[in-house]
Specification:
about 230 residues, alpha/beta, Rossmann fold, Nucleotidyltransferase, domain 5, 3-stranded parallel sheet, 3-stranded antiparallel sheet, 8 strands, about 35% helix, about 15% strand, elongated
């Protein structure tokens, strides 16, 4: 999870909330030490009330007003943090959410990007060829490529296409994520957006090598009707 967060920025204030007097949390000690995460003690004052949630919200607002952060990552599958995520974004902060597939939709859409815990996994490979195969081959999925997904991608391409119907794939991906913060190619078994596009017969992918550079620009369009 920390490796996933590092893709979007450098985590500096790392805190985890709970009643650390409870024996059920003893197993976290090694993990916290290895990742330099600070445990915040929050006693369970009343049965049935989650005081840790309140402590997290208060600390998040303190950090916001201290202007020591450019963004926040909230790791939770609880919709109680929906208003917090919304408020942080209203203040101009980037908000990333990480949680299980069961996470309620309101919290998901309140984030700039939401990542399911179920897709966070790093395959171990030994050669460049094996790495390519891992990136291209579909893996176990938590969502299926259905009509709604295809329509989402198609409408985003239409929003950005030029006179020939081509759209820059990077911009397409950014627009899709704005529409659906939990969109991620890994949800459908693909490491990247390009192989996902290739797997959908409705779309055509074109890679262009930039002049005097080895970098490639990838464009996509809806296949013209014959």
């Amino acid at each position: 999870m920390m490796e996933e967060i590092a893709k979007y920025g450098t985590p500096t204030l790392k805190r985890i909330y709970g009643d650390w007097t409870q024996p059920t949390l003893n197993g976290w000690k090694k993990v916290l030490l290895e990742n330099a995460i600070t445990p915040i003690q929050q006693y369970s004052y009343t049965t049935g009330k989650n005081s840790s949630d309140s402590a997290l919200i208060i600390d998040a607002m303190d950090i916001l007003y201290s202007e020591k952060a450019d963004g926040f990552c909230i790791v939770s599958s609880d919709s109680d943090f929906t208003r917090l995520a919304t408020r942080l974004r209203e203040a101009g902060m980037k908000v990333f959410g990480i949680g299980q597939k069961k996470t309620p939709t309101p919290f998901i859409v309140a984030c700039d990007k939401f990542i399911y815990l179920e897709i966070i996994a790093t395959p171990i490979v030994e050669t460049a060829e094996e790495t390519k195969k891992v990136k291209e081959a579909p893996k176990e999925t938590i969502h299926k490529i259905n009509k709604e997904v295809v329509n989402l991608i198609a409408s985003s391409i239409v929003d950005l296409e030029d006179e020939d119907g081509w759209a820059f794939l990077g911009e397409v991906g950014s627009l899709i994520m704005k529409k659906h913060p939990d969109f991620d190619p890994r949800n459908y078994g693909f490491a990247k957006l390009t192989p996902l596009m290739r797997a959908i017969n409705k779309f055509e992918v074109n890679e262009k090598v930039m002049d005097n550079s080895r970098k490639k620009q990838v464009f996509v369009r809806i296949k013209p009707k014959k």
